[in-house]
Fold this sequence. Notes:
Elements: H1 2-32, E1 39-43, E2 46-52, E3 59-62, E4 70-71, E5 77-80, E6 85-93, E7 98-102
Antiparallel strand pairs: 1-2, 1-5, 2-3, 2-4, 3-7, 5-6, 6-7
Amino acid sequence: MEDEDRYEEEPENEEADEESTDKEDLSSLVNKAPDWSVGVILYNGNAYPLAKSKYKRSEYYFSPSWRPVAKNVNGEVVVLRDGKVSKYKISRHGDKYLQVVLV
């Protein structure tokens, strides 16, 4: 019976390991970003550098014309250099940049 209890706990541990692996993968994307960026945004299957807006404290921006940090990346989140992972909303589409607000 003791073996059965241990066996039932293993899947939960595997899920926790997968989550930590995902966070490690995301933080490795941030490490590939240029020094000027505050993090990366996963948008349309690519990871782009993300910049902080000078005009609005809570906004960020990026351009799909920038060279991606990584391609074929799943998800729609922002990963900041401090490790924070957040969902986002595109607040404005400008001529060059897309304005992003964290949700």
